[in-house]
Amino acid sequence: MNPFTEATGRIVLGGAGWSRQLITDPSSKPVLQTILHALSLGIRAFDTSPYYDPSEILLGAAFSSPEITTRYARSDLLLMTKCGRITATSFDYSPATIRASVLRSLIRFSTSYLDVVFAHDVEFVTRDECVAAVRTLFEMKDEGIIRHVGISGYPPAVLADRATYIRESLGRCVDAVQSYCHMNVQNTALKTVLPKLYGDAGVGVVLNASPLCMGLLRSGGVPIGELGDFHPAPRGLREAAAKAAEYVEGHGGNMASLALRYAVGEFARADKKGGGITILGGGSIEEIEENVATVKKVLKRGDGEGDGDLRGYTVLDEDAWRADEGLFNGVREILGEWLDYSWESPDAAFFDAKKREAVLN
């Protein structure tokens, strides 16, 4: 079952834009006003995580506000969060901690249920740890606390493996899988595992997050927040992305806009079963305005009508896609050897930290 397309179209708003990884002092941002504006444009699905500190707290406060609760029914919204990842190097997938995390999220959002809860970044734990966490989430689904259960992470092949193993181990399929940085103009590896996710694993819907590769595919370089430069892209990829941005600007375009059009359009072309759901960034009214306008340049309304609610924009505009094809090809040519490059996740630093932790304990 696809829990998204009918209610939300192809777009979800991500909450990482209110995290300390990406910006300085997220609590100073007008989160409520930004969410209200997103809702006015037709965005109805929102994704966050306790790990994106303090995003879940800020979003929870916004969605608990009478300014939202008096205008929108809870059933009009899709609220998604995650569990299991504590810090950059700390994970706890134990059943007790998973349950406690979900219950805390319910309190933060002042709701009796969550639409989707993902086990966060499953590549950092063993297959059996992942199964144990998902088993707990399935139990909470049976209790009516969660509507849909998902897993998230970086490497598409690992996500496909974990989702298949969950089905084999528990006899149940996860409803949703969320990947990031693997469906964009630099890397389209997510396409290669869609048959396994929808086939062997029986997944209901696949979501693509970070269509700008965590800010790499834009002018000006990666975003720097309170935690410094956390982006794992190596120097060569960063330099190639900067050259690609200069190329796009030289042709009168904007790299971030072009990259978003590619990500949304290519996923719509590739994912015929789940709908091709993209999680957009947007930590400000201006950014959301720009991103929604960009989506409307590559998608068109399924009912054939003109402008309007973003939820109606579900069909790829083939003419718009062909108009961009020359720039798409030019960018990918510049990226060259870095096409479909993926960094290691977990990386060597994670394993070094785990070794030090083991010695201390």
Automatic annotation (TrEMBL):
Protein name, entry field: NADP-dependent oxidoreductase domain-containing protein
Boundaries of every NADP-dependent oxidoreductase domain copy: 10-300
Keyword Oxidoreductase applies: yes
GO biological process: dehydro-D-arabinono-1,4-lactone biosynthetic process
GO molecular function annotations of the record: D-arabinose 1-dehydrogenase [NAD(P)+] activity
Keywords from the UniProt entry: Oxidoreductase
GO cellular component: cytosol
Top-rank taxon, per record: Eukaryota
Record's keyword annotation contains Oxidoreductase: yes
